[in-house]
Amino acid sequence: MDRDFGPPVAIGGLGGSGTRIFSALLQAAGFRNGEDLNKALDMLWFTILFKRPDFARACPSEAALDQAVRLFHDAMTHGLSGRMGPEDRALLDRLRRDLPPHGNWTSGAIAENVDRLIASGPKPPGPWGWKEPNTHIFLSALDARFRGLRYIHIVRDANDMALSRNINQLKLWGPNPPEDAPLPVRQLRFWTKANARALDYGATMGERFLVISYEDFCARPGLHWERLKAFLGPEAHGEFPSDLVNPTTIGRGAALEHIPEADLAAAEAVTARVAALGRV
């Protein structure tokens, strides 16, 4: 990867985990995290290249991952304008056709985002990164291709997430066909497996991996802000945006009922790992 721009910082987690806050904090710390963002501050060029039909339906090949990472890196640094080959153009044309207004792939991106990706120009050197919740799905592939990648994984309370209306990741990356269980049980099982997977891989990254409990951050934002800046390194600067934290759904999991004991125990084990790794 291009040393003029340095290694990126990526943020991910299950959808609805509060990752938007940390994208805003990345900006506040002086990191460029893309110009084609939605209201949740997701970097939609990542969405286009990774949250796509062929990746959701089958394990992507190494060549497909190579191409997706290269295109994303180039778009976020030197820009894609004038740098694409025929195979790159064919891929992006196909992905554009999948998206609204003419396609039916509802990833959160639209055809206009592909046009902006294709037309992307050079960016100023400096600290950079992105936030897209699905990043954790591709963490090992990204780490293998972005030398020095740092990753921040956001974890929200298991019971609260079991009752979340955001089930996009469960539908995309969960068991196929879906398990024969109530939706909260399936959500809890996906929460457990996805977060355990991220924590397991994060252990191989050492100091380049940071896990943050959303609830603990909301309780002690100042301490976590200092911890985050220490993780980002000397390039991080800026003041904490004091109006950023306004949680509204903490505690909804108190209404969770009829969950098998084995599933609760598995989730509690992951929660304990998050608590141990996220101490400030």
Automatic annotation (TrEMBL):
It holds the Pfam family Sulfotransfer_3. The keyword Transferase applies. GO terms for molecular function: transferase activity. Gene3D superfamilies: P-loop containing nucleotide triphosphate hydrolases (3.40.50.300). Keywords: Transferase. This is Sulfotransferase family protein. It comes from Jannaschia seohaensis.
